């Protein structure tokens, strides 16, 4: 029998199969009893799970591991939840297909790296070429597998590259529509804007984020990105206006102080970067939710989209 995916789960279903552990934490309920709170996933999505018959003496499964579970799908506060009755760690002889479990970017990392290199090669500004390439060098090989987020948009293996290349495609069209924009500056901002997320999150080579790092919690990728940019500037000799503009684009790309930006965008390329970033993130979130929601149905409430429920249209005039 074919194993169900997370996207196919529905209330009152029985489930047995292998899933990847995103997080697992021992907790205590109001009566003082131990339970295990787990988030499990496959490449189609994730689901919160509870193990109620938990002794408190066992060790929770580590993030990035694969476990076999058996249980019943329930609904809690409008969201699906798996009540796990039995579980065990996966064994080599289980022959688990990891391609089924790991959310991955639609293109291999080398293809996306090649697209970024092509864009940089097209820059007319030698200073922007030099400093952008140095920022990629500082990011290192981890860029090949890092996700763009722990839970929200592009939370997948190579998701940071996926987010970057999608934004580059949008930015090229924006420049066509608004030719007064400085193309090289905007595209350089797109390429470097999130590179410091590699310092912000703890990710394994599968793209599974266990938690935020000390650097991520105390500093954050906007501010750490500026310090990396200054390091790249010293190495390449880039200074003056070019450096100041890129620094501002990094610290303003979240748009508003409540979203972590010390400054709001103060010139057109910075404003464009902010909206391209926001647009790409929202589109990716909506696509992910749509893929796990049947046509003609509404999703659960999505915390990251202002607690909205999303509708999956049938896109047909014949739909009732």
Describe the structure.
The protein has 320 residues and is of the alpha+beta class. It has two domains: 6-101, OB fold (Dihydrolipoamide Acetyltransferase, E2P), CATH 2.40.50; 109-285, Hypothetical protein af1432. The chain is built from ten helices and nine strands. The protein has helices at residues 98-101, 109-121, 126-139, 159-177, 183-192, 197-200, 214-218, 221-236, 240-252, 268-291; strands at 14-28, 34-42, 45-51, 66-76, 79-89, 201-203, 209-212, 298-302, 308-311. A five-stranded mixed β-barrel has the order 1-2-3-5-4. Strands 6-7 form a two-stranded antiparallel ribbon. A hairpin with a 5-residue loop joins strand 6 and strand 7 (209-212). The longest helix is centred in the C-terminal third of the chain and has 24 residues, at 268-291. The two termini are 34 Å apart. The mean pLDDT is 91.
Q: Which key terms come to mind for this protein?
A:
320 residues; OB fold (Dihydrolipoamide Acetyltransferase, E2P); Hypothetical protein af1432; 2 domains; five-stranded mixed beta barrel; two-stranded antiparallel ribbon; 22% strand; globular
